[in-house]
Amino acid sequence: MSLIRKTAAELGSMIADGEVSAVEVAEAHLGRMGEVEPKVRAFLHVDHETTIEQARAVDTRLRAGEKLGPLAGVPIAHKDIFSTHDMPTTAASKILEGWRPPYDATVTKRLRQAGLVILGKTNLDEFAMGSSTENSAFHPTHNPWDLSRVPGGSSGGSSAAVAAYEAPLSTGTDTGGSIRQPAAVTGIVGMKPTYGGSSRYGVIAFASSLDTPGPFARNVLDAALLHEAFSGYDPMDSTSIDAPVPSVVEAARNADISGMRIGVVKEFAGEGFQPGVLTRYHEAVQLLESLGAKVVEVSCPSFTIALPAYYLIAPSEASSNLARFDAMRYGLRVGDDGTRSAEEVMALTRAAGFGPEVKRRIMLGTYALSSGYYDAYYGQAQKVRTVISREFEAAYQQVDVLVSPTTPTTAFPIGERIDDPMAMYLADLCTIPSNLSGNAAMSVPCGLADEDGLPVGLQIMAPVLADDRCYRVGAAVEQALESRWGGPLLKEAPSL
What we know:
The protein is of the alpha/beta class and 496 residues long. The chain has helices at residues 8-16, 22-40, 48-63, 106-113, 156-163, 180-186, 220-230, 248-252, 275-290, 306-321, 342-353, 356-368, 375-398, 421-425, 432-437, 467-485, and strands spanning 43-46, 75-79, 117-122, 169-173, 189-192, 213-217, 261-265, 294-298, 401-405, 440-448, 455-462. The protein has one domain: Amidase signature (AS) enzymes, CATH 3.90.1300. The two termini are 17 Å apart. 57% of the residues are buried.
């Protein structure tokens, strides 16, 4: 088996044992990128020389006897919303084109400390606002399963890179489903940790009470290893939880779910869902029951109004966070010819630098926060958020985890929803409640839809700081389905 087909765990073990060097592994993945990247377009920035330098440094550390983590020398694709001092960090926006931060995000720093080799920065919807990666200011990314379709969003570049075997691992951020939804439509594993379980320091902010960094991988164990590598308390992030990281790697290796109580969310399996998605979902639920879990139906009626609540809260926070891009300190500056006021330069810069979706959300948020409307819109949305959190708490009194389809449909064609924001927003219907409540949630592949042969994801939701339950259930599903399929889902992915 070629190096690009190995799991991250396998690669880490081979590098540690001296069977292969980190440089050889990096070169294999750079070679794969050279083959498929012109079609997939998952990356915004790749520097071959820097990548090899990183890999060579890992080899040197290992030869010197330094004890590194289990992923030392393993390549990773890094979402271009995490600050990197040695690479551009643009959030896929013209307003930050070419910007190099003076520091690393905490997640970036921890990846480097663990010895992972950053291949480059991946594409995303501008400022992480979108569900298709079509809102990137630079170019859309294509789904490796069908190049005419989206790879999800906002972390579509990260999901596509892993699905296309350009990298065994990648990072993403999940604000309303931006890890789980792209993972589902590209047939890989994506995890949104408990809010505060992974640091937001150095992550370009979209919605500060929702943004959550998390891992992508082609299997549950690899995702768990990456989760442990960069998670944990960070004093630089005021919302970071000062608690041990849940034992996610141990859980990924323990796929016994006999006796677990699994709740099926009644509201997420009916009208508006693609039949092929529901078929694979119901099969996955039956599979969990056959593995010894007790399956019960759970009703969470307020989940159906999570979407409108989210699209008041998130844009409101975005309108505040994006005020910092004012042409005065860094980034793009338009019209500064010495004749215009600072206000005029700011207006011209923001008009030129922000894309349509970002402008739409800034205006929505500014309106929701404006005098006379705050209580009616933003205030009411926060009340809905509280009710949703209470419904989760009540549900977890009855069950250990909740499950649902990750997305209502499989990957949709590029361009199909770009002019219909409401249709685009519905891609996050099932994922948004977990962001509003802050609990852990994962998407794991559960098969291919009959209509189009495209991947379907099973969403597994767990209480706050019970991230390990997602990995335990996810590993059980993965092992059972791989036994049925005769190997990983992605082994039959379309050839690039």
